[in-house]
């Protein structure tokens, strides 16, 4: 069968890559489309996967996002019409469910954060199927039009699936000039382009970076999402703070880190799965997955730069992580693969 996947953000490449590889292993034809945002295209290029770039980044304001979507959806419709796809899948793409509804292509939208209300009011109503972790109560999705049987839940965290067969690569430390014997703190900036954050930047971040830079025993890597964020961090003029100019192997970096401070979601959960102490500086409404991780003691919130605890991480934590079979996600996300369409 012909399967279409749409990538609209950096994390989607990591989440969906093992699913793509399993689909192709099973003999399906897979086509990828991607929106240029943050490191999405860089990760696809590093993967070596053929993909079609459609659309543009619409900025942080609602009007700009709406204009960008209005331009991109017709491009997706034309692409989908040529591709004659049997089914489609995306993680949070707002454009794919619209195009698939026009083309009558059954499709699934995945999510693991329930409070992006405007996005889910559209996605969940137009998608054929909604797939999310069982940590999110089903009642929270009812207002978006996602109820069983359309609403399907999977066990655990999505990171436990796409990290199942993955092992960290120590070469990322050498690429960034890092010393494995010294304490390493990784900092991930906020997705300031997300509507649910209103385009804001976290004011705690500069204070935190100054504290980290002042400690000669600590090396810090800042994984910024945009050029503006990279420029802002560099403008602080801090020592012992590395700001990569393009996408790096963030999963390996988190695996080797002694602490992660992040304003995002996926990297926080990667750290929790890989056994790296993680502090969140996320400013949006707390989702059920993070509520679970907080309750389990695997995620803490940082409100003051001086509260961050830095120490060398105990060995062996990554080997003890939960591993789940990504084939379970394929089966839940794309039930149409076993059904021939006219």
Summed up:
The chain contains 13 helices and 13 strands. It is of the alpha/beta class.
Question: How does this model look, in words?
Answer:
With 342 residues, the protein is α/β, with parallel strands linked by helices. The protein is built from 13 helices and 13 strands. It has a seven-stranded parallel β-sheet, with helices on both faces. The longest helix has 22 residues, at 62-83.
Please state the second-level CATH architecture of the largest domain.
3-Layer(aba) Sandwich
Query: N- to C-terminal separation?
Result: 12 Å
Rounded mean pLDDT is 91
Residue fraction in strands: 15-25%
The number of helical runs is 13
Number of domains: 2
CATH fold topology of the largest domain:
Rossmann fold
Instruction: Give, in spatial order, the strands making up the sheet with the most strands.
Output: 3-2-1-4-5-6-7
Radius of gyration: 20 Å
The portion of residues assigned to helices is 25-40%
CATH class membership of the largest domain:
Alpha Beta
Total number of beta strands: 13
CATH superfamily of the largest domain: Glycogen Phosphorylase B
User: What is the overall shape?
Assistant: globular
Strand count, sense and barrel status of the largest sheet are:
7 strands, parallel
Please mark out the parts with pLDDT under 50 across 5 or more consecutive residues, or reply none.
193-200
């Amino acid at each position: 069968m012909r399967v279409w996947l749409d990538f609209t953000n950096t994390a989607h490449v990591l989440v969906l890559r093992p699913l793509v590889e399993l689909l192709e292993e099973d003999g399906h034809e897979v086509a990828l489309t991607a929106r240029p945002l943050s490191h999405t295209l860089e990760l696809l290029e590093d993967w070596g996967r053929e993909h079609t770039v459609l659309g543009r980044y619409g900025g942080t304001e609602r009007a700009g996002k709406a204009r960008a979507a209005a331009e991109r959806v017709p491009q997706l419709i034309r692409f989908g019409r040529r591709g004659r796809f049997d089914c489609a899948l995306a993680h949070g793409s707002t454009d794919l469910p619209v195009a698939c509804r026009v083309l009558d292509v059954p499709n699934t939208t995945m999510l693991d954060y329930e409070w992006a209300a405007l996005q889910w009011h559209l996605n969940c109503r137009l998608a054929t199927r909604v797939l999310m972790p069982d940590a999110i109560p089903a009642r929270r999705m009812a207002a978006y039009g996602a109820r069983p049987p359309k609403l399907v839940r999977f066990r655990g965290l999505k990171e436990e699936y796409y990290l199942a067969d993955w092992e960290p690569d120590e070469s990322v430390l050498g690429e960034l000039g890092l010393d494995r014997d010294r304490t390493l703190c990784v900092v991930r900036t906020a997705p300031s382009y997300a509507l649910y954050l209103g385009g804001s930047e976290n004011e705690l971040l500069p204070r935190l970076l100054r504290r980290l830079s002042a400690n000669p025993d600590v090396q810090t890597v800042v994984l910024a999402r945009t050029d503006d964020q990279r420029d802002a961090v560099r403008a602080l003029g801090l020592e012992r703070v590395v700001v990569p100019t393009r996408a790096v192997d963030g999963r390996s970096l988190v695996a080797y880190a002694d602490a992660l401070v992040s304003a995002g979601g996926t990297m926080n959960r990667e750290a929790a799965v890989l056994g790296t102490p993680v502090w969140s500086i996320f400013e949006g409404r707390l989702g059920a997955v993070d509520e679970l991780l907080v309750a389990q003691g695997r995620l803490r919130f940082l409100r003051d730069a001086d509260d961050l605890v830095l120490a060398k991480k105990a060995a062996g934590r990554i080997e003890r992580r939960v591993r789940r079979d990504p084939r379970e996600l394929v089966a839940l996300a794309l039930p149409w693969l076993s059904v021939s369409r006219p």
